[in-house]
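hey so u asked for the seq, here:
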Amino acid sequence: DYGSDESSRKGIMALASESTRLQNTLVQRLNEGDALLAEQRPQEALEVLLEAHSIAESIYAAQPSGQVPALTLLGSAHLGCGQLKAAEKCLTQAHWAVMKCEYPSSSQQHLLHRQLGQLYFLKGMAAEALTHMAEDVYHASIADGTTSLQVGLGYFTMGSLFHESEASKGAVYFHQAAKTWFDYLQSVLETDDYGQLDQCTGIRGSRMLDHLLTVLVEQSSAPFPPETAQAVMAAAMLAWLRHEKDAALSYLDTASEVLQQTREGADRDKMEQ
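ran it, structure tokens below
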């Protein structure tokens, strides 16, 4: 009858409204947690992401792959807090859910493999770490293209793995990371299309480039390879795009010095030949 149909309709609408509310809350908590992780505030992120994971479990109880983003970020928060066992539990659960999924998302997979790489790196398992880091770059390339910012961040994590034991191999990956960011940021300045450069990626990129400058400039000696100048220029462009003008100008001064020393080194090489 009409009353029964109307009651059913209202019930369905209420369930749909609650589902939408939970979905919106989940997205909000994941974004908040990711922002806190980007700012290196893992303890605060942990609280937010525990709530996100609880919501994801309630929404995706019958669809484990839907819990992967929450599990990945929660694992990252545990890593940041030094809680390796808790991190491994989250990340292996996410990995299992991905492996059971028929059509897993490459964007989710690359982020998961990045965290698994970090986990095994911290556990001193270099071979396993490298495997996951390579998977990170592979899936980031599929998701966003071979010249994407996420691919650059992936190369950076691989360079970090090799830096202590095989400095020359680490430098190759560092240079690739710098080149990827240099090319992308140059296109942003030319087209004013920020594309992949969201706030969290910008924060992570700024921290990555600062580390690259420490390794490639401060801890190295002239003459520098051309890729070193690209790293400094990338740092300058990113600072400019983030409205950090004083930092951008300082990086430009450093870039000028690096380029001058690179040219002088190339000239000496020619004279010695």
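The mean pLDDT is 90. The two ends are 97 Å apart (CA to CA).
lmk if thats what u needed
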